[in-house]
Amino acid sequence: MYLIKIAEINEEIRDLEVRLIGDDNEQLGVMSGKEALALAQEKKLDLVKIAPGAKPPVCKIMDFGKFRYEQQKKDKEAKKKQKSATLKEIRLGLNIEKNDLETKSKNAIKFLQSGDKVKVSLRFKGREMGYTQQGFEVIKKFTAEIEGFGTLETPTKLEGRSLVAIFAPNK
């Protein structure tokens, strides 16, 4: 089928001469616009201008309603197949134990394997803000745990009271 942006249909086509393509994709040659419209109406189909910039413009005889329906169906199908990467968040604490870190990293690995990005945030509470260097070390340990499954997309940075790092899945 043609990927066309339809400009004019049936009576809207006011060109004196058009190159006509039949409903079975055969070239019918150059003829007047009125003759082409009469041919289309005789077959109970629509006359659609598919190449308005050509000399003379190219028109095709087709069932325009059916064409639009199939085009919408294709667009809908293409939209279904698109996968948008969502951002999943994993929250860590400054004093997280080894087993808890392993559990969180396993969850992050699951997310990365399913094609999602993972945002790891480590929130500092109260006086913990004085120990930001320890926070960077916790993020480093987490990075080592998920090393084969994701890559660090944005480097670890301090945003307010949180350390944030974003991981993207490996290709």
TrEMBL record:
Q: How does it assemble?
A: Monomer.
Is ATP-binding one of the keywords UniProt gives this record?
no
Q: Where is the Translation initiation factor 3 N-terminal domain?
A: 9-78
As for family, the record states:
Belongs to the IF-3 family.
What task does this protein carry out? IF-3 binds to the 30S ribosomal subunit and shifts the equilibrium between 70S ribosomes and their 50S and 30S subunits in favor of the free subunits, thus enhancing the availability of 30S subunits on which protein synthesis initiation begins.
Q: Do the record's keywords include Cytoplasm?
A: yes
Q: Which Pfam families match?
A: IF3_C, IF3_N
Q: GO MF terms on file?
A: translation initiation factor activity
The encoding gene is infC
Localization in the cell? Cytoplasm
- Sequence ranges assigned to domain Translation initiation factor 3 C-terminal in this UniProt record: 86-170
InterPro entries in UniProt: T_IF-3_C_sf, T_IF-3_N_sf, Translation_initiation_fac3_CS, Translation_initiation_fac_3, Translation_initiation_fac_3_C, Translation_initiation_fac_3_N
This one is known as Translation initiation factor IF-3
Q: Which domain of life is it from?
A: Bacteria
* Stored NCBIfam families: infC
Keywords attached to this Swiss-Prot or TrEMBL record, sorted alphabetically, are: Cytoplasm, Initiation factor, Protein biosynthesis
Instruction: Output the PROSITE patterns linked to this UniProt entry.
Output: IF3
Q: Where does the protein principally reside?
A: cytoplasm
